[in-house]
């Protein structure tokens, strides 16, 4: 008779006589080693110094807590629970990698709120993926291949079933928990999220943010303290009694053109004698051109820019404005302000209005009508909708129709063809780049923006031939960065150095153009005072002669101010801001932060004051408190916006 083999005896003998097999039969060691390798990959991408010995003291204790609890509570299906924990932690690391590549900050649970957007911008998301990132999933694929094969199921059930000594397990959990707390608590006051995550460990930081957000809710500032006077004092400005260019364009239309991913360095750029953006170059040379202008968008990028421009307030720090509580509020806005002054209001975008919750945004800020994919169709499809050529060709006749009415109009137009990852058909590329630009993000970006400029030229021609050019204030600006520093490889960094003539940096990344065509103001000028998207509302209102006396705004009229403070939200650590001369990047606080000169991105000293640092945080709190304490929108307002 064949003697039955006792699997437990085999395991016992194997461990006894072959210590190397401990990794097979002590899964806590095997899976901790696997996750340590994955954490090293994440640290290599996210932290400038890469993996370090400190990683062992910050990441391993978290693994041991998770796996120790599995050992403590499970006697059956233990390997399955290890695999599930391994998968979940791997997904956290992968999310951190992918998020950092675009946003430059550590993803937290807040990013999960935008997970549905990933499927809608798949090509853009996949372009951020370096092949070696997939290395962290190799072990999971191997486990999956084995665990569902019948002959291995019995073996997996027996392996690792031996319980750890309770005293050893209790000691392991106690020491690991103490180490995690030791890593977290001394670093919880740091303002720099990346530094905080490095000091705490990526996984401990993720858990910390959940507890911190639930226990440290921001206290709202009393509405009586939120006044225009308070805002102006914090920014250090005084509104003039007789502003320059006041009502220079009273009664004229307002057309606002938001240019997808358009950065300021493109203007005037030539590559081997070819102008990248000839149409916008001519525009900047003939109109009011603000060359020291910056994006105020956050996690919501394009839709955040729409929100900021139309409300002159700031976006939330941890989420897109269109996904925030702000959308439930009766928001004072540019469309509502102009409607009260006899304007029609309408917005144009070739993507679906449901993307980034835009339909709710338009209801909240009060646009009377929107045109989206249903109007433009799928003709000449690029990125997420019809091309910019189609956008402008179908929009100009609608603008002309609005212009024929007795009352003026406000129209917002969003271009989209130059959307990340900037993959255009060859037939849409009006510029021929040298071979060294092939298959690079920089090359694709320049080609896409050259096409966007070509389409813009057709739009400008349409405005002139229709008579709209002479009867409208027309604003052009970039919505957000197109080439995040965090997404560039070594060869792309070299290309940017060649283009800029120096190192490409934070100040270049956030710098977008702002061009104003004002028939009434007349003269052309290049203006260098610091400005941001939050300033567009008061600047346009000044030209149109529309009073803001009863409307709180955090921006300022750039024709009448020379001093500014601008937050950099989400893409840099909390507390980072731009003033008249530099970009300040927060350290653990103000004293160990870094200043970058706005002219050449060089590190500089004394570029700001701690009073400005404090004022900027107060401005953000005022904005958030103001918006959250506004009256809720009533249900009847939801039907106001029309297709």
UniProtKB/TrEMBL annotation:
<dbReference type="GO" id="GO:0005886">
    <property type="term" value="C:plasma membrane"/>
</dbReference>
<dbReference type="GO" id="GO:0046872">
    <property type="term" value="F:metal ion binding"/>
</dbReference>
<dbReference type="InterPro" id="IPR017850">
    <property type="entry name" value="Alkaline_phosphatase_core_sf"/>
</dbReference>
<keyword id="KW-0464">Manganese</keyword>
<keyword id="KW-0472">Membrane</keyword>
<feature type="binding site">
    <location>
        <position position="479"/>
    </location>
    <ligand>
        <name>Mn(2+)</name>
    </ligand>
</feature>
<comment type="similarity">
    <text>Belongs to the LTA synthase family.</text>
</comment>
<dbReference type="InterPro" id="IPR012160">
    <property type="entry name" value="LtaS-like"/>
</dbReference>
<feature type="binding site">
    <location>
        <position position="302"/>
    </location>
    <ligand>
        <name>Mn(2+)</name>
    </ligand>
</feature>
<feature type="transmembrane region" description="Helical">
    <location>
        <begin position="28"/>
        <end position="47"/>
    </location>
</feature>
<dbReference type="Pfam" id="PF00884">
    <property type="entry name" value="Sulfatase"/>
</dbReference>
<keyword id="KW-1003">Cell membrane</keyword>
<keyword id="KW-1133">Transmembrane helix</keyword>
<keyword id="KW-0479">Metal-binding</keyword>
<dbReference type="InterPro" id="IPR000917">
    <property type="entry name" value="Sulfatase_N"/>
</dbReference>
<protein>
    <submittedName>
        <fullName>Sulfatase</fullName>
    </submittedName>
</protein>
<feature type="active site">
    <location>
        <position position="302"/>
    </location>
</feature>
<feature type="transmembrane region" description="Helical">
    <location>
        <begin position="53"/>
        <end position="72"/>
    </location>
</feature>
<keyword id="KW-0812">Transmembrane</keyword>
<feature type="binding site">
    <location>
        <position position="260"/>
    </location>
    <ligand>
        <name>Mn(2+)</name>
    </ligand>
</feature>
<dbReference type="InterPro" id="IPR050448">
    <property type="entry name" value="OpgB/LTA_synthase_biosynth"/>
</dbReference>
<feature type="binding site">
    <location>
        <position position="419"/>
    </location>
    <ligand>
        <name>substrate</name>
    </ligand>
</feature>
<feature type="transmembrane region" description="Helical">
    <location>
        <begin position="132"/>
        <end position="148"/>
    </location>
</feature>
<feature type="domain" description="Sulfatase N-terminal">
    <location>
        <begin position="252"/>
        <end position="546"/>
    </location>
</feature>
<feature type="transmembrane region" description="Helical">
    <location>
        <begin position="168"/>
        <end position="185"/>
    </location>
</feature>
<comment type="pathway">
    <text>Cell wall biogenesis; lipoteichoic acid biosynthesis.</text>
</comment>
<feature type="binding site">
    <location>
        <position position="480"/>
    </location>
    <ligand>
        <name>Mn(2+)</name>
    </ligand>
</feature>
<feature type="transmembrane region" description="Helical">
    <location>
        <begin position="79"/>
        <end position="100"/>
    </location>
</feature>
């Amino acid at each position: 008779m064949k003697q039955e083999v006792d699997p437990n005896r085999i395991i016992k003998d194997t461990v006894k006589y072959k210590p190397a097999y401990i990794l097979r039969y002590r899964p806590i060691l095997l899976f901790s080693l696997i996750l340590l390798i994955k954490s090293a990959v994440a640290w290599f991408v996210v932290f400038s110094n890469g993996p370090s010995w400190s990683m062992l003291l910050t990441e391993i204790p978290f693994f041991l807590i998770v796996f120790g609890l599995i050992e403590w509570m499970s006697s059956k299906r233990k390997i399955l629970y290890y695999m599930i924990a391994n998968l979940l932690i791997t997904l956290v690391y992968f999310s951190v990698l992918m998020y950092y590549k675009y946003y430059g900050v550590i993803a937290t649970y807040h990013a999960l709120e935008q997970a549905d957007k990933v499927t809608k911008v798949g090509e853009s998301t996949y372009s951020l993926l370096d092949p070696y990132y997939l290395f962290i999933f190799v072990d999971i694929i191997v486990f999956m291949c084995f665990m569902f094969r019948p002959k291995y199921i019995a073996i997996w059930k027996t392996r690792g079933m031996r319980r750890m000594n309770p005293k050893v397990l209790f000691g392991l959990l106690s020491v690991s928990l103490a180490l995690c707390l030791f890593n977290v608590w001394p670093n919880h006051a740091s303002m720099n999220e990346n530094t905080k995550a490095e000091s705490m460990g990526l996984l401990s930081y993720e858990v910390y943010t959940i507890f911190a957000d639930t226990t440290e809710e921001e206290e709202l500032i009393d509405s009586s303290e939120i006044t225009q006077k308070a805002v102006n004092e914090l920014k250090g400005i005084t509104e003039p009694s007789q502003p320059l260019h006041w009502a220079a364009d009273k009664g004229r239309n307002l057309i606002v053109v938001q240019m997808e991913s358009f950065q300021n360095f493109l203007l005037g750029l030539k590559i081997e004698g070819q102008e990248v953006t000839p149409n916008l170059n001519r525009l900047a040379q003939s109109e009011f051109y603000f060359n020291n202008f910056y994006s105020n968008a956050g996690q919501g990028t394009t839709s955040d820019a729409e929100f900021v421009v139309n409300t002159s307030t700031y976006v939330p720090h941890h989420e897109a404005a269109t996904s925030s509580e702000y959308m439930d509020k009766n928001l004072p806005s540019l469309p509502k302000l102009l409607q009260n002054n006899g304007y029609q209001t309408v917005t144009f975008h070739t993507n679906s209005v449901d993307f980034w919750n835009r339909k709710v945004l338009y209801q909240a800020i009060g646009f009377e009508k929107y045109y989206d994919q249903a109007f433009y169709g799928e003709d000449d499809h690029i990125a997420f909708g019809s091309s910019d050529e189609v956008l402008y060709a179908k929009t100009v006749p609608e603008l002309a129709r609005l212009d024929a009415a007795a009352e003026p109009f406000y129209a917002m137009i969003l271009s989209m063809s130059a959307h990340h990852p900037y993959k255009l058909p060859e037939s849409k590329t009006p510029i021929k780049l040298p071979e060294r630009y092939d298959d690079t993000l920089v090359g694709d970006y320049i080609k896409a923006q050259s096409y966007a400029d070509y389409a813009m030229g057709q739009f400008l021609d349409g405005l002139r031939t229709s008579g709209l050019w002479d009867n409208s204030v027309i604003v052009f600006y970039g919505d957000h960065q197109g080439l995040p520093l965090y997404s560039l490889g070594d060869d792309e960094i070299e290309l940017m150095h060649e283009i800029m003539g120096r190192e490409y940096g934070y100040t270049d990344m956030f710098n977008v153009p702002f061009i104003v065509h004002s028939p009434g103001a007349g003269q052309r000028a290049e203006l260098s005072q610091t400005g941001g998207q939050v300033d567009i509302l008061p600047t346009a209102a000044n030209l149109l002669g529309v009073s803001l006396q009863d409307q709180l705004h955090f921006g300022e009229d750039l024709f009448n101010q020379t001093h500014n403070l601008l937050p950099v939200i989400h893409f840099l650590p909390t507390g980072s801001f731009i003033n008249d001369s530099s970009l300040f990047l927060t350290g653990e606080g103000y004293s160990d932060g870094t200043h970058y000169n706005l002219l050449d991105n060089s590190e500089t000293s004394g570029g700001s004051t701690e009073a400005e640092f404090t004022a900027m945080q107060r401005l953000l709190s005022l904005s958030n408190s103001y918006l959250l304490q506004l009256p809720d929108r009533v249900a009847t307002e939801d039907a106001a916006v029309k297709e």
